[in-house]
Amino acid sequence: MASLISENLKFFSLFFKSRDVMIFNGLIALGTVGSQELFSVVAFHCPCAPERNYMYGLAAIGVPALVLFLIGIMLNNHTWNMVAECRKRAMKNCSTPATFLLFGSIAGRAAVAPVTWSVISLLRGEAYVCARSEFVKPSTLMGLVADVAPDTMARIPCKDTPSSILAYKDEVIRTLQYESQFIGWILIAVVASTIFLLKCLQHCCSPLSYHQEAYWSQYRSSEKELFNRTADVHAKVLAASNVKQFFGFVALNKEEKEMVTEYPVDETQPSPQWNEITGVYLYRENKGYPLYSRLHKWAKKVIGNGTDAGSREMALLAV
Q1: 3-state SS assignment for residue 161
Q2: Could you tell me the pLDDT band of residue 43, with boundaries at 50, 70 and 90?
Q3: Same structural domain for residues 115 and 243?
Q4: Which of 29, 36, 256, 304 has the greatest count of CB atoms below 10 A from its CB?
Q5: 2 located within any domain
Q6: How confident is the model at residue 9 (pLDDT cuts 50, 70, 90)?
């Protein structure tokens, strides 16, 4: 039983590790759904006035989506790698297709939350009903006179709906919710189709085999994890050494003392080395051997872009 549980845990560990992007995007989508529900309950209040309804409804859908998009861009490591690449090398190492795909990768990752927000808003229909209520033509409602003022129609989504149009309130709201949900489902279909086509394009244009791409993904994940863990230890040991030089001693717990003893650190890495491993990286091969990252390239002492006669560049980013 213990061995079975252990094997299952290993399987789930590999599953999550190999699909970290998919799971991360799913968690972002779930968080966005929860935020949208909270916003609808606590913060959404239709102003029930001509022109204000339209502006408020659009703002309720568009402004949070824009904020989430900007947050997604800021939280994407590719963004800051690109900034570092522009500052250090002016994107000289990236071809035009690669640069375009880099922007696409950043925008695609950042679009998960805003698209989810927009879809949920449209499926709920509250913001759309608020925005479109004042534009409903009274002539389309059976038995309603055609000279109803827009300010009266703008109050349809509200609790204090005028008695003259109260009988038509449910019909108008039902029609607008239908339109809103229809747009939402169309948006879902467009996004799903776009993602499918882009994934097909990525695998069709990739010079790597499926297994090598999977290995590259595993390598990047392992390198990032080990680099961050090692950097954390290195920073603590170096800080302990500097604090000891200043005070003459350093207050460490038992675990930290063992760490300092096991991993002695005298100096930090010079800036040129940090510059070499920082920035945008596309898959490259040097004389037939793969270079999976800037750190890998630096460790192999490869100079330049690796684009000589025996090298090639893959213009697709790993997302």
Answers
A1: coil
A2: low
A3: no
A4: 36
A5: no
A6: very low
Q: Please choose, from the candidates 64, 187, 189, the residue with its C-alpha nearest in 3D space to the C-alpha of residue 114.
A: 64
Residue 312 pairs in a beta bridge with: 285
Beta-ladder partners of 291: 284
Do residues 132 and 51 touch, judged by C-beta distance below 8 A?
A: no
Query: Do 46 and 193 belong together in one domain?
Result: yes
CA distance linking residue 199 with residue 124, whole number of Å:
30
Domain boundary among 183, 205, 227: 205
Domain span holding position 246: 213-268
Torsion of CA 234, 236, 242, 246, to 10 degrees: -170
Neighbour tally for 147: CB within 10 Å: 7
Considering the domain architecture, whether residues 155 and 283 belong to the same structural domain is answered as no
Burial class (CB in 10 A: 0-12, 13-18, 19+), 276: middle
> Of the residues 228, 245, 268, which one is the last residue of a structural domain?
268
Q: Is 54 helix (H, G, I), strand (E, B) or coil?
A: helix
pLDDT, tens only, 184-235: 999 999 999 998 998 888 778 777 888 888 899 899 999 999 999 999 999 9
DSSP helix/strand/coil, 290: strand
**pLDDT, mean of residues 246-250:** 92
pLDDT tens digit string along 262-310?
998 878 888 888 888 887 777 888 888 899 998 998 998 886 554 443 3
- Helix 2-18 and helix 210-247: axis angle, to 10°? 90
Half-sphere exposure of 294 (CA within 13 A, CB side): 15
pLDDT band of residue 109 (cuts 50, 70, 90) is confident
Q: Answer for the pair 112, 25: CB distance below 8 angstroms, yes or no.
A: yes
Cα separation, 243 vs 237, in Å, equals 10
Question: Would residue 236 count as lying in a domain?
Answer: yes
